[in-house]
Design a protein that fits this description.
The complex is a heterodimer of chains A (350) and B (557). Chain A contains 14 helices and two strands, in the order αααβααβααααααααα. Chain A has a two-stranded parallel sheet with strand order 1-2. Chain A starts with a helix and ends in a 5-residue tail after the last helix. The N terminus of chain A is likely disordered. Chain B is an alpha/beta fold and 557 residues long. The longest helix of chain B is centred in the middle third of the chain and has 18 residues. Chain B is built from 21 helices and 21 strands. Classes of the chains: A mainly alpha (350), B alpha/beta (557). The interface between A and B is medium-sized, with 24 and 40 residues.
């Protein structure tokens, strides 16, 4: 019995993990990506950066390591708070009778003035929110949008591309027509259209808020490149002898498509997937900037970067740095990981 | 006769990140002026690396030992600076490669490519160069050379492409032409013509030729001297008559013997190992069963391809005209023809990998061509195919074990996975491979081993009929013998019926009980192999018989 098990080939997944571990670059990038995923999980659970939206510091609070830096903006605001004297308009104000009632009701509420700190670990933004917390919470949204949308686009592109390339004929004609429709509309227009349909159409209730609108927009518009590449690969592979051999022994069309050919074109899919993740995280930035991205009550690397534009002019660089660093590290690690994955999946490169 | 090029103690290794492999281990030979030297060996013997070292056309990771020397006209070619090397390449020493389709640039016309060589080395004007190109194309035997100047490589046949390559190589009247298996990718009858061309040009231009081949039979027709290589060392060298008449090294004797002979049909072909170990050479004659009730019968098979030529217009191309044959258990029908003759199409029609346009393929009385796909599944198990190219027919991403087990799983053979893996190991043993091949991947095996794996996969479903579509054409002659022996042995013990397809008449003659000669989709001649060889009726069959390399007997000059 033991002899039988010895010769049974190890499963594709254990082999993959074993080879990834042997590749140092792959192992390190796998570690980094895993660390990000853990961080995102903690952020989602609220254990990490839960209070990212609280104004814990003075506006544009300095990073802890730059505590001595003069902060003109915070000083300016403090001065306007103290000086702000409201002129007496009681005689002409039609709402004057209500003042007393309001004052009473305000008195019932308890308000605490939080002590705003002058410095934050990685600085603060315009409202004094902690930039580090924002970057962590932003990772959750950006990576979810980028990775989930890229996976969806890859799935659509691969399925359609495989079908068109493998079967050819009228199926290919139809899918080519679909592809042409999608690529003939300017990308940004398509995005606007989809955003309008998803936000105010009959589906508005389903996707009322949250990031799912962005994910759907990106995956529905982003599958075309993947489709073309996968289709071309399938056209090349479908008449290869190993596929004919599989057909000769009775393998079904689906089995030939996904069990035999797909592993042989996976390198194309993986490389394209990593490019899509990078591209989608960047597109999310643009969409957020245009107001079509994540809702205003959420933070993403994209919204951070668009805020950073104005801050940079007055010399507050830390928000830009935080978003860029988080993004750069993740994207580099992710690209490296897909490259290693591609090599690990290829038995010729063991 | 003085030496034109002298290679002395050549050592070349290939360095990868993990290791260094010594491909050529101290090879010396001399190419005399005005003669042909042949380098012969199996793939991996280092013959191509040795020859390409002369022009320093080696992969980046090749390292030539410092003590090695290639002397040409008083210079050491391994030490000359790059500009001088460029001057020599294409003018004094030129090369023709194995695959004419990939050696020519597909987006430039033939005329531009030939003219480029002339302009580079002769400083000719564009018009002069084109004029001279036409003359060169005429010299290498391309009809209507002027019109062909404007043709693109894909508009020419393989033989014509190779002629263009030769025209480029001789354009500057080089002193040495290196021909690296120039005819391996060509049809047999074209192979003969190209060899004749090289021999004629060599004589006319009084140049030397370094001819690289794995086939001693071919070399004997052309070469004046032969160097036999194996594993990066020279096993034997000498004048061609001595090599053929009195070979000293057992390896040379083995190479001479392993090509199927036309005058005998031994039960088993001699292989390299027999000679290297000094075992007796098999001579027992092959016994064949008599024809009986046919198991597979093809009747008037026909296949047309429709080519769209316009929006509505289309033209039909007849791939297979009218092919009929019958095979009974334990017997072999051979199909011979060149590329484009429709022989592979016949195989695909029988397997229903292509839909036939007409005719019947009866298997045990049932017409396979009219079966529903679901009913066909049962027959897929009983009729299997081995493809030509073992490098393409195995899925590179699957281990051998999974490749062998899948067909059994599809057809529900074996009680469970363990049982199937046990049977897969038995199959590997049966085709002469070690059990540890199970976890390995196709790229780890040589061509001959891969073809054994492909045969094992076909046998996994216990078929009754095996279609062999050029199963040994991609293999060295020495490996061919081992695979043919395996096929014969399997046929004897399992009673398989074979449809054996090949372009090599000698191989088909050895394997088959009945031979069909095909040309442009039609069967032009059929009969027993002996009859076809003794008195070929059709002119095309005669050409095929003449094209079989015969060593010294087929001497070109």
């Amino acid at each position: 019995m033991a002899a039988v098990l010895d010769v049974t080939p190890e499963s594709a997944w254990t082999a993959l993990l074993r080879r990834l571990q042997q590749d140092r670059v792959g192992a390190v990038s796998l570690g980094i990506v895993a660390a990000y995923l853990v961080m995102i999980f903690f952020a989602m659970a609220g254990w990490l950066a839960g209070g990212w939206s609280e104004e814990v510091g003075v506006p544009y609070a300095n990073p802890a390591f730059l505590g001595e830096r003069p902060n003109l903006e915070a000083a300016l605001q403090k001065r306007s708070e103290h000086k702000g004297r409201v002129p007496d308009l009681r005689d002409i104000d039609p709402l004057a009778p209500k003042y007393e009632e309001w004052a009473k009701r305000t008195g019932e509420l308890k308000s605490t003035q939080r002590e705003r700190s002058l410095t934050l670990p990685w600085g603060g933004d315009r409202w004094g929110r902690d930039v580090l917390d924002k970057a962590i919470k932003g990772s959750q949204v950006s990576i979810a949008v980028g990775v989930v949308a890229a996976l969806c686009a890859t799935l659509i592109g691969t399925l359609l591309g495989a079908t068109a390339g493998f079967y050819g004929g009228w199926i290919n004609d139809f899918l080519e027509w679909l592809y042409n429709v999608f690529t003939s509309i300017p990308g940004i227009l398509l995005v606007f259209t989809l955003a309008a349909v998803l936000r105010s159409g009959p589906l508005a209730a389903v996707f009322a808020s949250g990031i799912w609108t962005v994910v759907i927009i990106l995956s529905v518009t982003g599958w075309t490149g993947m489709y073309r590449l996968v289709r071309a690969e399938y056209m090349k592979h479908r008449s290869r002898e190993y596929v004919l051999a599989a057909q000769a022994m009775g393998a079904s069309g689906l089995s030939r498509m996904f069990v035999h050919i797909l592993p042989n074109v996976s390198h194309v899919v993986l490389v394209q997937l990593s490019l899509l993740v990078v591209a989608f995280i960047k597109v999310e930035v643009i969409l957020s900037f245009l107001g079509l991205g994540v809702p205003v009550d959420m933070v993403s690397w994209g919204t951070m970067l668009s805020e950073a534009q104005t801050e940079l002019v007055i010399g507050k660089w830390w928000q830009l740095a935080a978003a860029t660093l988080f993004m750069a590290i993740f994207l580099t690690a992710f690209s490296m990981l897909t490259d290693s994955l591609r090599d690990a999946l290829d038995p010729r490169l063991r | 006769m003085s030496a034109l090029v002298a290679v002395r103690d050549l050592k070349v290794s290939f360095v990868t990140r993990q290791s260094a492999v010594e491909a050529v281990r101290g090879v010396s030979f001399e190419i005399p002026e005005d003669s042909t030297l042949a380098l012969v060996g199996e793939s991996g013997s280092g013959k191509t690396v040795s020859a390409m070292s002369i022009l320093r056309l080696l992969p980046e990771n090749a390292v030539i030992d410092r003590a090695s020397r290639v002397e040409y006209g008083g210079e050491n070619l391994l030490g000359v600076p790059a500009p001088r090397l460029r001057e020599l390449r294409g003018r004094e020493i030129s090369a023709v490669f194995q695959e004419p389709m990939t050696s020519l640039n597909p987006v430039l016309t033939v005329g531009e490519q030939v003219a480029e060589v002339l302009r580079l080395h002769r400083g000719m004007s564009a018009r002069q160069a084109l004029e001279r190109s036409a003359e060169l194309l005429n010299e290498v035997g391309i009809p209507e050379p002027r019109a062909r100047l404007r043709a693109y490589p894909h508009e020419l046949s393989g033989g014509q492409q190779q002629r263009v390559m030769i025209a480029m190589a001789i354009a500057n009247e080089p002193k040495l032409l290196i021909a690296d298996e120039p005819t391996t990718a060509l049809d047999v009858t074209v192979q003969r013509q190209v060899l004749e061309l090289i021999a004629r040009l060599r004589e006319r231009h009084r140049m030397s030729v370094l001819f690289i081949s794995h086939d001693l039979g071919l070399v004997g027709e052309l070469a004046d001297a032969v160097v036999v290589m194996r594993d990066g060392v020279v096993r034997e060298s000498g004048p061609v008559e001595r090599i053929f008449r009195a070979p000293q090294d057992p390896y040379t004797r083995a190479l001479l013997a392993c090509r199927p002979r036309l005058d005998a049909r031994p039960r088993r072909l001699p292989v390299i190992e027999d000679f290297m170990r000094g075992q007796p050479i098999p001579s027992e004659p092959l016994e064949r069963p008599d024809a009986a009730e046919p198991l597979v019968e093809a009747r008037h098979l026909r296949k047309e391809f429709r080519l769209r030529t316009g929006l509505w217009a289309s033209r039909s191309l007849l791939a297979v005209g009218d092919v009929s044959f019958a095979v009974s258990r334990g017997r072999t029908v051979g199909v011979v023809g060149e590329s484009g003759s429709g022989k592979t199409t016949v195989a695909l029609l029988l397997m229903r990998l292509l839909q036939a346009s007409g005719g019947e393929a009866r298997f045990d009385g049932t017409d396979l061509l009219k079966l529903k796909p679901s009913a066909m599944m049962g027959f897929r198990r009983r009729i299997q195919i081995v493809f030509q190219n073992p490098y393409a027919s195995l899925n590179p991403r699957r281990s051998i074990g999974r490749t062998l087990v899948e067909p059994m799983r599809i057809h529900g053979l074996g009680a469970g996975e363990d049982e199937r893996y046990r049977r897969a190991r038995q199959l590997l043993q049966r085709v002469g491979l070690p059990e540890d091949a199970m976890q390995r991947y196709p790229h780890e095996f040589s061509g001959g081993q891969r073809q054994r794996i492909a045969i094992a996969r076909a046998l996994a479903v216990e078929p009754e009929v095996l279609i062999c579509d050029e199963p040994v054409s991609a293999l060295d002659v020495s490996v061919q013998a081992t695979v043919l022996n395996l096929l014969l042995e399997l046929q004897e013990s399992l009673g398989l019926a074979y449809v054996f397809i090949s372009h090599d008449l000698a191989v088909v003659k050895y394997m088959a009980d009945e031979v069909l000669v095909m040309r442009s989709g039609e069967v032009v001649e059929r009969g027993t192999p002996e009859a076809i060889f003794r008195s070929p009726q059709h002119e095309y069959t005669r050409k095929l018989v003449e094209a079989i390399p015969r060593g010294l007997e087929g001497r070109l000059h």
